[in-house]
Amino acid sequence: MEIWKMNKQGICAAVSYMLILLALFLIFPLRLLPCFLAGFIVYETILALTPWVERLVKGPLARWIIILFLTVLVLLSLVFGITKLIGFLLHDFQNPEAFHATASKLLEDAQRTLSPVVTRYLPADIDELQHQVVTWLREHLVVVQTFGRTAAHTFATMLIGMLLGAIISLRGGEGNQTNMPLTHAMFERLGRLADAFHNVVFAQIKVSLVNTVLTSGFLFGVLPLFGLHFPFAKTVVVLTFIAGLLPIIGNLISNTVIVLIGLSISLKAALIALIFLMLVHKLEYFINARIFGTRINAKTWEILLVMLVFESAFGLAGVVAAPVYYAYLKSELRYAKLI
């Protein structure tokens, strides 16, 4: 009987490993990584805030208050973001002369600053630029439509993931108290995955802080040396920290914003911003790997290698998921006393 019980537990543990491995790698072809990340972020946020709220309110009500607060925060952010975007677009439509003047100035700067080898591929004036944009949109209409559908799918799956994370957080630790061996094994796997995600999230916060400090130094220290003063610098710093909480993609978002705002000043400002960001992010790549390595007990070269392999296998989504997956793998190997 004891032998059968041990064999049964071993079989259930093996099945749980196979199931969690299958689920983790099905995330990529099913395009569910945004759902996975959003759900875990909400889950870990609620767990982290619960002890603070429980000082005022006891019991499950504390988590309901946190969920309500996060819901209001997300809704206000969406409303604010959409309102600002609509206002920005309407402002441009109401002031076409200002837009034309800015675009013409950028084209003139490019013709005067860049090499003739490059400028011959640029539009000569604003009318030619408009013609090229319309032509590109007409020729790549399917690409634009696909991008729109992908963005809508990503947004919808993120909302669903956030909802699932909130629902699961309400269960607390009751799911772990079970006599069913397979269920118990699955909760063990998920618990270690949640711990790995927790460690990576805190590492990402440190990464975001480093990125924000470097960006602040660039905006308030480097650019003034060239006689350039960046508009909305404080807003960009805040955006850099918030976007930096997203691995890899966050840096791309903040860098794109900085370069675009630099273009609104002059071509020189945009080129300085682009060159500086490229150099800084070469340094950041190793700093980030070092931070992640310290948090999940992995060497820098291990993180870089895993990110490279996952990028080759799954693209940008693989780069984002690589630290979480590797942290989970090491925790399971460490628990099994294999490393």
Report on the structure:
The chain is mainly α. The chain folds into two domains: 1-28 and 180-339, no CATH class; 31-172, no CATH class. Helix content is 84%, strand content 0%. It contains 13 helices and no strands. It has helices spanning 2-26, 33-53, 61-94, 96-113, 116-119, 126-139, 141-169, 181-225, 233-244, 249-265, 267-296, 300-314, 316-335.
Topology, number of strands:
0
The share of residues in extended strands comes to: under 5%
Structural class: mainly alpha
| Shape annotation | elongated
Helix content: over 70%
Individual helix count: 13
Rg over CA atoms, rounded to whole Å, is 24 Å
Mean pLDDT: 75
How many structural domains in the coordinates? 2
Task: Characterize the biggest β-sheet.
Answer: none
Unreliable sequence segments: none
What separation lies between the terminal Cα atoms?
32 Å
Written as H for each helix and E for each strand, in order along the chain, the element string is HHHHHHHHHHHHH
Give the SSE map.
Elements: H1 2-26, H2 33-53, H3 61-94, H4 96-113, H5 116-119, H6 126-139, H7 141-169, H8 181-225, H9 233-244, H10 249-265, H11 267-296, H12 300-314, H13 316-335
Question: TL;DR of this structure?
Answer:
With 339 residues, the chain is mainly α.
